[in-house]
Write a structure and sequence with these properties.
Elements lengths: L1 H10 L4 E8 L5 E7 L16 E3 L4 E9 L2 E8 L2 E4 L3 E4 L13 H13 L2 H8 L3 H15 L12 E10 L3 E8 L4 E7 L3 H9 L3 H6 L2 E4 L3 H10 L4 E4 L1 H29 L18 H6 L2 H5 L7 H13 L1 H16 L5 H16 L4 H12 L1 H10 L4 H17 L5 H12 L19
Parallel strand pairs: 2-5, 8-11, 11-12
Antiparallel strand pairs: 1-2, 3-6, 4-5, 6-7, 8-9, 9-10
Helix pairs in contact: 2-4, 4-17, 5-7, 8-12, 8-14, 11-12, 12-13, 13-14, 16-17
Length: about 450
């Protein structure tokens, strides 16, 4: 009797009676058990008491946490019940989840390790198959997050963005709650069709409570807002607006580089032999422009001495490119204004300058900024950016790198929710810890 109590305490199982224990030929331990009377004849899906259908055709084993270097299995009969809702299904057991060959403790440990290690390392440590980890993650996510709709309660400020998870234009759409900084929804794909699925999960009251939506300049974001939450204001992230200007500047730089290349090729070739003193030096403008990308993209306060010299050279040699650089810097400084009125004045001045700058890409850019004028001003008024979303995207990519990829998109989405949402994943022994009460 004492041995059975010790085994039950070591296995950390409840509503379970220990019958016997034996050592298998490979050195692993098999613990024969059965559920207590109150936990017998329950549906494996809903847990409802149901009539017994049969006593099962065989015994079933569940892998639990190892004892030192020895594997441990819980072995029990596999009866079936006739559930009024789900039909004939395998009866539930208190130590494991439905359709799982592992105990709850083992799956908690595997999930925590998968969040902090590569799947290959977890598979080697726990001595399980690499393909087994994905389903374990999904089962634990469903157990810890039985009602995902709770995250949609009280939404006020949300952010949306898409991020790639695999080569070949494979994207997922992520929605976060700015007030908590946590992911509330993620789905495969991107575009209006995908974002519409998120809004259809919300009630009319939840849609009406949304006040601000942050994102990039994608048209589908505004189209979904107009359809589902027209009262909300849109905020375009300053990072994306400045990125538009940086991309336009880089296009001007490439044009200047190509022109300088053509000019250098048109020059007469130098005669063989040592050049005389009055021979003009080789034109290196194309080479200098090609290597000036980082100098043009960085803020002036972060430039190195070499990059400052590159900018000084551009200011003298290519007035058009330098004017494009000043346009980019002027737009960046608009977002550093302390009040909305000043920012509005500066933005209007920038649009007027870009409109008459005689640089095609910046003329197109000012038209794009005119289309998003209200959203840009709303960003400066409410100071709502997509920085949290971009940080979450980085965490998502890190999760994918750590796992060396996911073959199943659902397993990947479940891992994203476990790492980036408000779901708390604990180690098995942390459930019994008493946390100190803050004064």
């Amino acid at each position: 009797m004492l041995t059975k109590k010790i085994l039950k305490a070591v296995l950390n199982v409840k509503h379970t009676a220990i019958d016997d224990m034996k050592i298998l030929p490979d050195g692993s331990f098999a613990i024969m058990v059965h559920p207590t009377k109150g936990e017998q004849c329950r549906c494996g899906i809903c847990g409802r008491k149901s009539p017994c259908y049969d006593k099962g055709r065989r015994q079933r084993s569940w892998r639990t946490c190892d004892w030192n270097t020895n594997k441990v299995y819980i072995v029990a009969d596999e009866p079936r019940v006739d559930c009024p809702e789900h039909g004939v299904v395998t009866a539930a057991v208190p130590w494991a989840m439905h359709n799982s060959r592992f105990t709850k403790e083992f799956e908690e440990l595997a999930t925590w390790l998968a969040m902090n290690c590569s799947k290959t390392a977890v598979a080697s440590l726990l001595r399980i198959s690499w393909n087994t980890i994905g389903p374990i993650i999904s089962r634990m996510k469903n157990k810890l997050d039985p009602d995902p709709s709770k995250r949609f309660v009280g939404l006020v400020n949300i952010g949306v963005d898409e991020t790639s998870y695999k080569k070949g234009h494979k994207y997922i759409t992520v929605v976060i709650n700015h007030d908590t900084g946590k992911v509330i929804w993620a789905h495969e794909g991107h575009g209006k069709t995908i974002f519409t699925k998120f809004f259809k999960l919300l009630t009319k009251k939840q849609l009406a409570s949304i006040k601000l939506v942050s994102g990039d300049g994608a048209k589908w974001i505004q189209e979904c807002m107009d359809e589902f939450c027209p009262q909300a204001e849109r905020c375009i992230d300053p990072f994306h607006v400045v990125q538009w200007a940086t991309e336009a500047l880089d296009e001007v730089r490439r044009e200047a580089w190509r022109e300088a290349q053509k000019k250098a090729k048109a020059e007469p070739k130098r005669k063989p032999g040592r050049p005389t003193k009055d021979t003009p030096k080789k034109d290196t403008t194309a080479k200098d422009l090609k290597g000036s990308r980082y100098a043009l993209g960085k803020a002036p306060e972060h430039l190195t001495e070499k990059q400052e010299a590159q900018l000084a050279f551009i200011a003298v040699s290519d007035k058009r490119l330098y004017r494009a650089y000043l346009l980019k810097e002027k737009l960046r400084l608009v977002f550093q204004c302390k009040d909305v009125e000043t920012a509005k004045t500066e933005l209007d001045g920038w649009i007027k300058w870009a409109q008459h700058c005689r640089i095609k890409v910046f003329v197109e850019l000012q038209r794009k900024i005119r289309r998003h004028y209200d959203a840009i001003l709303a960003t400066m008024e409410y100071h709502l950016t997509n920085a949290v979303v971009e940080a979450t995207n980085r965490k998502i990519k890190l999760s994918i790198y750590m796992a060396y990829g996911f073959r199943n998109i659902d397993n990947m989405l479940d891992m994203i929710m476990l790492r980036c949402s408000d779901i708390e994943v604990r180690l098995p022994w942390e459930h019994n810890l008493v946390l100190p009460v803050e004064a």
